[in-house]
Amino acid sequence: MSGTGADGTTGYGGGFGGVLPPSPPLPPGAPLPPDRPPTAGLPRDPITAATAALGNLTGLGAGYLFLRRWPRAALAWLVTAAFLFAVLPVTAEGVAGGWVAAYLLCLAALAADAWRLARPPAPRRPGVWVPAAAVVAVAALAAGSVVWCGDAQERALERDLRQELAAADAQVAAVRSDPFDQARDGYDSALATYLGVRAHHPSTDAAAEVPARIDALYEAATAPRGGQDGCAGLEPLRYLADLPEDWDDAEAERLAERAVAELPEPLHACGMQHLDTDPVAAAEPFTELLSEHGDSEYATGLAEELGARQGQAVGALEGDTACEALDEIRGLAGLFGRLPGADFSRLAEEGAAAEPDGLYECGVSRFLAGAFEDARSTLEELIQDHPEDGRVDRARDIVIAARIAAEVPAAGEELPPESGGGGATVRVEVYNDSPYELEVLYTGPRTGRDTVEPCGDCSVYPAGTGEDEFCPRGTDYPHTVLNLPAGEYQLLFGTADEEIRPNGASDSFDSAYIYTYCNYVTEDSLLPGTDV
């Protein structure tokens, strides 16, 4: 369709392909029209901008993908990859807060950038499902991240805790065979690890394994060790029994209760072991047994058990076993005096009452065995400590015979006779040509002792003096006279303080004769340190 305008121009009408007519001239003074659409610079749609911003908060650059900004999406991926590189693998301590804060700041910047880019006009408005999906995606990703991080942290924690437990197990295994005083530090360290895992992470699987590991530590600590006596087992049990003093933990209490329940038996065994070597040393384990485990069967039966042992020793106070039995009675007496309770005081009194029997029987046994010095010291103890005993006089005779037998062995072939002898008597005169008091010991049909006072005008003869110069005639020497039953005698001349070397003799006395002895001292007969 065509026509001619009033101004002579030709125009075409119709709705398609025609040329727009020129704009009519503006009236004088009218303002110029704007050079851009009135909507430019405003958000195309708040929902679109929010969708892009939320998409970037996922950390996957979803907002940039929505806006088809490919390079920026790659940058978002790079930020997320850097964050994951920094925080993975997740450790037992979790993700450091600094990295999380930095990453959140980056996500906020990416979200703001997506909001800014969504401002230019868009050809059409997106559907409501797009922002809704973005919100759901962000929420799901956040929740999934929290769950994943928590699970990763939990698995890392379990891994670290098991490594700690394995290291503690290795410590226990390393010191298992060592003496406890050397192994104690290792047990302390392992126990600290076990109880620390249980106290600080009680809900973990590793914490659930702690009781079994602590039981293994108990078995290792209390296991018998080669080359150690029975008392060595007390130290680890005492250590375990005292754990609650250092650890406020139910497992420590459980181990302590177990150790306390097991202590009476080794305490008893340790004490009984000492009875054979050093009975007084048994006082420590027995006292602990009686004081701290008094209700145990080992404590309640201890007095009867030790009383029976003392009774056996008293029954063995004769013959070759007398000295061993005496030693045991004395050892038990020393032990009983250190144990608490009236039963042990009574046992101590019973042991003391049997001591004189032991001293006498032991002295006789040693004399017959030829141990004359031991016999002498044992019987002298009876004489000094129990002067009221009815065997003191007999003990003195045996002591005299033992002293003589040390120089004249024939005097120790048998015990001196208990009777004083009878029949015809012999006169024996003993003179003292020395400045020392003379002691005369004799044994035979009769055993006894006599002394002769020192000679005031006499002196010690020089070494090498001839026999004819001793005891010159015509001198009034101090002397004593012994009237003895006839028979075989062994004699010993010396001093009571044993300052000179004694001189022994054996003689057969006949009642038809008078026997005379003159004692003198030469320089070479003086014992070292004797004053002349």
List the helices and strands and how they pair.
Elements: E1 2-4, E2 10-12, H1 46-57, H2 62-67, H3 70-87, H4 97-117, H5 129-175, H6 180-200, H7 205-208, H8 210-222, H9 234-241, H10 250-262, H11 264-275, H12 283-292, H13 297-300, H14 302-315, H15 322-336, H16 342-368, H17 372-385, H18 392-405, E3 425-433, E4 438-443, E5 448-452, E6 479-485, E7 487-494, E8 503-509, E9 514-520
Parallel strand pairs: 3-9
Antiparallel strand pairs: 1-2, 3-6, 4-5, 4-7, 7-8
Describe this structure in words.
By secondary structure, the chain is α+β, with helices and mostly antiparallel strands. Among the domains are: 46-119 and 132-153, no CATH class; 420-525, Immunoglobulins (Immunoglobulin-like). Helices cover 51% and strands 10% of the residues. It has 18 helices and 9 strands. The protein has helices spanning 46-57, 62-67, 70-87, 97-117, 129-175, 180-200, 205-208, 210-222, 234-241, 250-262, 264-275, 283-292, 297-300, 302-315, 322-336, 342-368, 372-385, 392-405, and strands at residues 2-4, 10-12, 425-433, 438-443, 448-452, 479-485, 487-494, 503-509, 514-520. The chain has a 4-stranded antiparallel β-sheet, covered by helices on one side. Strand 1 and strand 2 form a beta hairpin. Helix 3 packs antiparallel against helix 4, helix 5 packs parallel to helix 8 (210-222) and helix 6 runs antiparallel to helix 8. The protein is rod-shaped.
